[in-house]
Amino acid sequence: MLLTQSTRSVGALLTRWRLRAGLSSLLLPLSNPSSAAAPASAESVWVVPLHDHPWYDHVRLRRVFVADGTRHQVVLVDARKLLACADRDDTDYVLKPVAEWHSGKMRGIREFLDPDNPRIPAMPYVTVTTRRAPGLLGWLGLEREGVVAFRNGQHRARYLADAGARWFPVEVHEREAALLREVCGAADDARTAIRSTTVEAGD
Fold first, then answer.
1. Signal sequence: where (predicted)?
2. pTM of the model
């Protein structure tokens, strides 16, 4: 009988210890001051100069996909080459030249891209493929040409080119990044002309 009571007492003590240990482990993260004081995450912003735009001389663009593991890359493209490839797209909506836009659309995209806005617009998001080029070499399968389709940002891309941006960043899936650089990649000068800075996320 004494042995049974002793065993029960030990069991009760063990139960209390487990409950207290479990409660402590649940409360510990809530009382950790380092988690409350953690700084906001930062994101990269690309500054693109505009050479023919009286309202402002540059725009700021951020990435479309900012989370880790999205498998997308930023590629600096030649504006003229990119739009030439986009004009070949026969599967998506291709916009008219900027000069043919109505005044409301022009004003809207201009205000949207204004670098004084607290909300930084996302860079264009594209896909790229190739097809046979016209002519004999293309028919023989010896020459191909790039075709770009906009998933998002066609208005801003065409506006930037019209405003004098020679190069700007776009985002593309990593499996298409090498092809996009091949058919639309910017010159080496773009790496010094387009600056990438870091700002706090949400700025």
1. 1-36
2. 0.75
